[in-house]
Structures are given as structure tokens and as C-alpha cells.
Amino acid sequence: MEYAAIAFRRWAARGAHFGCIAAFVAFCAFPFYWMLITTFKDVHDLIDTANNPFLFNLPPTLENLRVLFGETRYVRWVFNTLVVGVGVVVITLLLAVPAGYSLARLSGRWGRQWAIGIFLTYLVPPTILFIPFSRIIGALGLQDSLWSLVLVYPSFTVPFCSWLMMGFFKAVPRDIEEAAMMDGLSRFGAFMKVVVPLSSSGILTVVIFAMTLAMQEFVYALTFITTSSQYTVSVGVPTFLVRGDVYFWGSLMGACLIVSVPVAMLYNAFVDRFVAGFTVGAVK
């Protein structure tokens, strides 16, 4: 009897554990299921409140995708978003990696104070800064240009990524750099050939973080861009698929699904390094 009770408790614990995981997976996957089913639903199926919203009550249709690709510049917006994202990632890496390394090797009270100060700039709401940034963009003559976004977005990606990389570089022992320098490498050579490869998880975290922020940002893109051909996805989709009180829900969900699936796959492919990037960078 005692063995049966132990076995029952063990299987009950496993069942509860599996149930929690299944509930969490269903919770995380539900938005993708909702976007997928809404993308291929007929308009009458969507607006009829008597229908089951979780199933196809009418045959699936491709009309929503036809509207998305045929009546909007969605492909152009995706291309613009990728251009801005790549530019922001490059600038962020060029500034955040050296800044993080410098802060990590700056010992004493000044190092901690500079690190806290840089991180606090990330907490400034973007809605406060878009007016002065618009004056700067106007003075540079970059209105209605993707370059305006490429130059402005690093203002909130660089501070956090510098702080994040600082934690990673602190996790790299100084002895490794000193040994590389004793073998004939300069400090810059030791940094590039030893420290950077050991911090690849942090660099990958910076790339994913900066790309995600560039893809989802709305306020600056709406303020600086006025021509539809220069829109990014975050601005173009709601501008053209929300007309007054008419919402093209099928096309909206299709646009969201197309851009969110690659990002989800990227996170899933590098989830171990991504989690390590945030935990090590935050704790160390």
C-alpha cells in the first residue's frame, strides 16, 4: 500500500507538472492560432456573433491576403523595416560593445556610477523625446527618410545594450586577456580575438533585442515618416488597414502573423543563449 501511495503521488506530481506546462504552452501559442485562423476567415464569419470564433464556420478564404498584398504596400513596408532594423543593429553593436567593455574594465566607484547613469537613460519615455528629436531630424534634412529612424532608434537601444554587455564582459576573467597580451596580442587584439568570442551570447542578445525594438516602435516612425512608401510595418499596417471605424481584421492579423512568426522562430532557435544573455548580463 505504501509503495502504491508513493507511486500515485509521483504520477500525480508528473501530471500536475505536465498540466502546468501544457497550459503555459497553450497560453503562449493561442495568439498565433488566433492570428492564423482570423487571417483565413471570411468577413461574414468574423462579424457574425452567432458563429464560433475559434473555428471556421464558413470555408477559408484568401481574400484577406489579397487585400494585404494587393491593396497595400506591405512588401515594401517589410523591406523598410528590415533596412531600419539592420542599420540599428549595426550602430548598436558598434557603440554598445566598446562601451560595455570600457565600463566593465573601469574599476571603482566611477564604473558603477557610469553604468547606472547609462541604464537610467534607457528608462526615459520615448514620448518625451520625439519633439526634440523631430527638431534635430529637421535640422539635418532627414524628414521622411528611413535614415531618421536609423539614427534615432539607437538612442534607446544603445544604453540598455551597453549595460547588458558590461555584465557579460565582467564575466570574462581579466587573466584571459592578460595571457593573450603576454602571447603578443595588443589590448584591442585580445578584445577582438578572445573577449568578443567568449561574449557571443551577449552579442546575440543585443542583436535580437535591438531588432525587435526597431520592428515594433511606433511613435518615432509615425512622427518622422509621412510618405506611404517609406512606412515601416508598425505604421503602415494600422494606417491602411484601419479606415475610420472599419477594421480589416483578417488582413491585420495576416500582417501581424507574417512578421511575428520569423521573430518567434528566431527566439526559439536561440532561446538558450538569449536567456543566458539576459541572466548573466543582469547578474554578473
Number of E strands: 2
CATH topology of the largest domain, by name, is MetI-like fold
Structural class by secondary-structure content: mainly alpha
- Low-confidence sequence ranges: none
How many helix segments? 15
The backbone outline, from C-alpha atoms, is flat
CATH architecture of the largest domain: Orthogonal Bundle
The CATH class name of the largest domain reads Mainly Alpha
Main-sheet strand order equals: 1-2
Helix content: over 70%
Order of helices and strands: HHHHHHHHHHHHHEEHH
Roughly what fraction of the amino acids lie in strands? under 5%
Distance between the termini: 50 Å
Give your account of this protein's structure.
This protein is mostly helical and 284 residues long. It folds into 2 domains: 2-61; 72-283, MetI-like fold, CATH 1.10.3720.10. Helices cover 79% and strands 1% of the residues. The chain has a two-stranded antiparallel ribbon with strand order 1-2. Strand 1 and strand 2 form a beta hairpin. Helix 4 (74-105) crosses helix 8 and helix 8 packs antiparallel against helix 11 (200-216). The radius of gyration is 24 Å and the shape is flat.
Short synopsis of the structure:
The protein is mainly α and 284 residues long. The chain contains 15 helices and 2 strands.
Set out the fold topology.
Layout lengths: L1 H38 L3 H5 L15 H8 L3 H32 L3 H14 L3 H15 L5 H7 L1 H18 L2 H9 L4 H12 L1 H17 L2 H6 L8 H9 E2 L2 E2 L1 H21 L1 H13 L1
Antiparallel strand pairs: 1-2
Helix pairs in contact: 1-14, 3-14, 4-7, 4-8, 4-11, 5-8, 8-11, 8-15, 9-10, 11-15, 13-14
